[in-house]
Every structure is written in C-alpha cells, then in structure tokens.
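Dear all,

This email documents one entry for the complex benchmark we are building for the journal club exercise. For each entry we list the sequence lines for every component of the assembly. Then comes the predicted three-dimensional structure of the complex as a token string, followed by one or two observations. Please use this as the template for your own entries, and keep the labels exactly as they appear.
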Amino acid sequence: MEITQKILDFVMKQEEPVIILDLDIIEKNYWRMQNSLNHSVIYYAVKANSEKRILERLVKIGSSFDIASIGELDLMLSLGADPSKLSYGNTIKKEKHIKYAYDKGVRLFVADEFSEIEKISRQAPGSKVFARIQMGDSDSDWPLTRKFGTNIEKAVDLMILAKEKDLIPYGISFHVGSQCYDKYAWKTALLKVADIFYHLKKEGIELKFINTGGGMPVQYLREIPEIEDITAIINETIIENFEGFDELIVATEPGRTLVGDAGLLCANVILRAEKEKNDWVYLDAGVFHGLMETIQNFRYEVIVWGKNGEEDNFTLAGPTCDSVDVIYDEVYLPNDVNIDDKVFFMNAGSYTTGYSTTFNGIESPKVYYTDEI
Amino acid sequence: MEITQKILDFVMKQEEPVIILDLDIIEKNYWRMQNSLNHSVIYYAVKANSEKRILERLVKIGSSFDIASIGELDLMLSLGADPSKLSYGNTIKKEKHIKYAYDKGVRLFVADEFSEIEKISRQAPGSKVFARIQMGDSDSDWPLTRKFGTNIEKAVDLMILAKEKDLIPYGISFHVGSQCYDKYAWKTALLKVADIFYHLKKEGIELKFINTGGGMPVQYLREIPEIEDITAIINETIIENFEGFDELIVATEPGRTLVGDAGLLCANVILRAEKEKNDWVYLDAGVFHGLMETIQNFRYEVIVWGKNGEEDNFTLAGPTCDSVDVIYDEVYLPNDVNIDDKVFFMNAGSYTTGYSTTFNGIESPKVYYTDEI
C-alpha cells in the first residue's frame, strides 16, 4: 500500500501509532484470486486480521471464511456470515466446541488425527471433513508443516474412518507455509493430493474438495510471484492431474494475501540512544504492540519519513521494558533519524492487530480506514 | 506454589484454562525482601502482573511501584497508590507522557540518554532522576543489558547534566537480568555503582538512591539462590563499599520475585497427535494465551495431573493455527498423557496474563484467587 498524501496528512497529526487499512485493496485482491483460479471458493483466514469492517466487506462480496475457534465463529455470525460458508479449519478443536459450531450450522471441519475424526463424528454427525497433509520444507517465511498435518497414508485412513463414522469424506488440505516464495510448492502438494484422490476413488470414496491453504506471498523486501502466477500453476496442475473428477471445488485460505498489502503501520520515534555497537532507535509500537511477526526476523520495508541522511546500521526496538521487544537487531535507516520522526512499516495489514497485547500498560496501535481519514 | 486439594477440586471443574494466584504468597515474598534488605524500598514492577487484586494488596501493605507507562500510572492511581511512591522506570518515555506523569504527582524518573534528561527537565522540573547502567553478561534467563542502560562514564555525565538542568541527581540503577542465578552479579554491579557515587561526590553531587532492579530468581527447574542469600550479598557489599554515604535508599524492582511462585496455570489437553519424530500434545493455552515466555525456551515445571506412565519425549503446543505457538519442542511427559488431561505450569504467576492476546479468537486463561475458589 502506498503512502498517499491523504495518509501522510493524517499520520502527521497523530501522536500515537496507527494502522491504516484500505478495504478496496482487500476487495481487489479477493477478485484477483477469485477470477484467476478455476472452481475457486475463497475462505478468508479470519485470524490474519479480524477487524470488523474487513469481515463485513468480505461477507458482502460473498467470501467464505476459515475460522480457528468458536470465538471467530461467533464474530462471523454476528456480522451476518452464513454458517454454510464457514470452515472450522483448526486441526485442534475441543469436542464441546465442535458441538457448538455444529449447533450454529457449521458443516465443514478439518482433521489430521483419528481422535479428531471421532470427536467430529460424535458432535457433528453427517458433516463434511477434510484431512490436512504435511508438506516438506518449502521456501516460506513461516513453515507450518511441523505443527499441522499428517502423511498421505494416514490422510487416506482418516477419510476411510470418516466414511465409516457416517461423516462425508470431502477432501484434502495442505499449507505450503505462510509467505511462500516458490510457486511450484503448490504443484508438489497438489500431486500428493491427486494421489490421495485416486487411491480413495478405488476404495469407493470420491473426494471433491482441494484446499490449497494460504501462503501466497505479499511484497515486503524479497521479490515474489504474483497471485496469477500461482493460480495458473494450480489451474494447470489440476487440469493435468485430476482427470475423472468432475465436481471439484478448489478452496484457498488466504489471510496475508488479501490483507497484507492493504495496510501500513506508522509509529513514532520516542528516543535515539547511543550504545556501544550502534545507535538504538525506540518506537511507540513494537513486538507486543503490532509487530509480533518481527520476533522471528520477519522483514517489513521500513521508511523513516522525510529523512534523507546516508543509511547507517541501527537497532530498532519497541517501547516496553522488555528485552524481547526488539524489532530488528540490525536495520539500515537514514543516519539523521531522531525523536518524533514517523516510521512506516509497509504492507502491515495482516498479523499485526491480532497479536496485540496491552503489555506494560501500553495500548496497541489504533486502526483507521482510508475512507474515514 | 503447591497444588493443594482445594486448587485441584477447583480446576477439575473448569473446562477452560485458568491461572490461580495466591495473594498471601505475594505478601510473604514482599516481607521477605523488605525485612532482609537494609534501607529497603520495594518498587513492585507492575508489568510482571498488573491484576488489580495484586496491586491493591501491595498498595495496602505500603509497597512502592515501578511503572513502565502512563497506562500503568493511571491504573495505580485508580487503585489509590500515592504518586510519591511511583517510579517512572522506563528509559523510553514520550515527552508528553513525562508531563502527564509530573502533573499527576510523579517525581522520580529514570534516564540512560542525554535527550531523556532534557525531556525530563522540560516537563518535570525539579524531579529526582536516576541513571541506568548496563551490566555485562550475567547468568540470567532474560539479559536486559542490550536494550537498556549506559556505561559508567556516561552515567556520571547524565547526573551532572541533571544537576545543570535543575533536576535532582538521585542515584543509579541496574538490572542483572530477569531470573538471574548468580548472586554475585549484584555485587559486581554495586561496585560499579559505588565508583559512580564516589566520583560524583568529588564533583559535589551526593547520590542517595541505589536501585538494584529486579532479577531475583523464582524456582522453576534450575536450583536458585534464596532471596535472603541475595539480600545478604547486597547488604554486605553496601556496608563495605559505600562508606560516607549516610542516607542511602536501597531500592529493588521485583516483579517475578514477588508474584512468580504465587501462581500456577492449569490447561487442558485438546488433542494428542502422532507425528513423524514424536507425538505432539496440544493444549488450550499456549504462547499467545499465557505462555509467551516459553517462546525463548523459558522452562516451567510441567505436571500432567494423575498420569504416571513412563516419561517420553513430546512436543507441547498451543491451540492456535500458528506455527510459532509451540510451547516446548521437546519436553518429557508421562507417555499416557491424553485428551482432557489437566496440565499444570508451576510458578506461573508472573509474565503470563500481561502478554496475553486474543489471537485466533481465543480468550486467555481467566484469573482466580485462592481465597475465592
């Protein structure tokens, strides 16, 4: 998202850190995915940014939603979402939460373990279930493969168990890792999914649902493939490898992909301090107040507004009395950066507000929309 | 804190994760410090746990408080704290927040940079200021030395500048690192402080305030020195090295030391899943819901209640769809651990609720007190 004059005029008047979001960019990203992917159903990953106006806009344009908890379920229902458009996409669910979701009308659940299928069969009879498979290591910033997913053999067995338990064995999901740079990771995964589809067809189970997860990258510092580069690979792989399956649904679970480049975070310099190795710059937003993703060195583009000094190496930190609250150990900034400067974190629309705390008695950045500033 | 029968009866009825706190243990820890340290003034570090009942109890027994922000200032004033007992102990302060604190009656501020002294002199005229010095690496779990503090020479210059700016040069603070295992770290630091005191005395500035920070450890897995072992070292070092200073105040800023062993967190197993390397156990509390300190492998004692199987190696994770939400990559648990088991994190009274988020639409553990369960 660009720093427009309007945004600049607004942030210059702010004494606290802010996040600014542009709903039109989110909608544009939605249609780019929807229009370039065959058989597409988009399940927006609510966890990426659960600000109400984002969710309302996506409900309005017909999106489906990937929810991680009954908290997100209640939120979506309160905003008018149709429960038939919700996927309970967390592999880790309490049995009573499955019942709660079923009672509210949710009929689509994920699982990667037998006991989870059993919970779903007890509390959500007749529902559709899909199994999540693990991926190998991919070139992504946040590999999700260790915590979630199972192998191909077990995915097959999970679908067979689902059928035995009178659930609807519906499909397979995977996740290439959040912010994935390699468009062929989707192809590799889809070939595994095809294996499972054909294997189960022989057993009399016809799957329909190919859930390609999230992970399409957003522009930070590294060059990325475009959305259409990735959807083209997905389309092509499915045409070539899923022959004989006529009613396919190709689901995606974009979070960052829809909202990442639809936002920015603007913080203020509180202090510049001379330290032994290099100077430190302290902001009024940090790891615990909007920039949690930097804790594992996730790299935003950082712009110090109006300063044009030669670049020098700084440590950039947040405002709390906590040693973990260091945004970047090393980052190049103009050497004339100083107190009261505005510092922009570009494309910070996702995974910022959601991780916020009030640690140290400090509020997280307030959210504004471009149409209200 | 022990798992008493009363606590057990209570947690067995809970379907969600809980934190249980014992105010009497906090008070006992307070008096242990207060009674064993000469010239003691205890500034409780509000950030360690800012639950109202804890703060109210500490106000009642006469504690002073170390605040990190005007949010914590407002909270303390709302609970009846005397502003003259508050220390604005964050080296990173907005100028307008210094003014706000001064207007509310705060007269004690820290600084580790010249520009911070200048801000204080403009907005809090005549206040007491102390300089924070850096420590070398100490044997602690959370070294705080990189982000905060300056060297001895600059600390001297900061106090001289404070005098020039009509502030009261009041003393020196340090922090040996949170959860510090080496009682001699305090001695090493105090010798540096003594150097500064003598040096400034020659320049006509008599300091009074020795702020020994926090860092006294709480029992998790490693053996620790007792509070009294550490206060004895501090007493002895001060007697031997601060001759000629008659009105000394020995401040401490305990957080974990007062509340760490006054609490526990009890979570529930949601799922046990077979993975390639080892089995994973998923809980309804995790990194983003009470256990943030584990993100850098901070080790609690973990007890799976009522399971006595042989110990095996597990990965322990939280309930969110986030790969960072892994509590421990490797932890030994009874091999019969399973869904619905109660899992206790011992001595989890500090830095749990304060870091909580509602990420993934999941609420953080609710707090209860032993006198209300």
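Observations: Residues 5-19+261-372 of chain B form a domain with the Lyase, Ornithine Decarboxylase; Chain A, domain 1 fold (CATH 2.40.37.10). Residues 184-202 of chain B form the longest helix (19 residues).
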